[in-house]
Amino acid sequence: MNKTLMIMKPDAVKRQDFAYILSRVKSAGFTVRQMRMLQLSDEKAKAFYEVHSERPFYNDLVKFMTSGPVVVVWLERENAVDAFRELIGATNPADAAVGTIRNDIAESLEANSTHGSDSDENAEKELNFFFG
Ligand code: CMP
What we know:
By secondary structure, the chain is an alpha+beta fold. Helix content is 42%, strand content 20%. Strands 2-3-1-4 form a four-stranded antiparallel sheet, sandwiched between helices.
């Protein structure tokens, strides 16, 4: 069994899209191991997205991710990282395949509703970041 971190981002939380997202996650065969709603501090959002700190969108990304609560979810499934990224679709919803979560509900590249870990190594780090 493999694991990955999902974040339901502030736009998804504002729209109260929990039931839609979790039902897609369940249908795709994932098991929820832990889940928590929290408000990211500026410091914590900066640390989580540290890898993007040199990118021009970093400050806006941090501002968006702290604009309201998020839900962090520990998911398990075989091949969890790739399977979850397939389920959510491309980072930019304009490029996300029809039927993916981002194609269905995301608003923009920034307000793209969900985050998924991009490798097993990062899944481990990101789950540790939120769940210890
Ligand atoms: P996420 O998978 O959470 O990882 C970093 C986030 O930065 C990404 O989703 C996007 O929501 C956001 N972002 C904003 N602008 C860009 C950009 N130009 N390229 C990539 N990601 C971006």
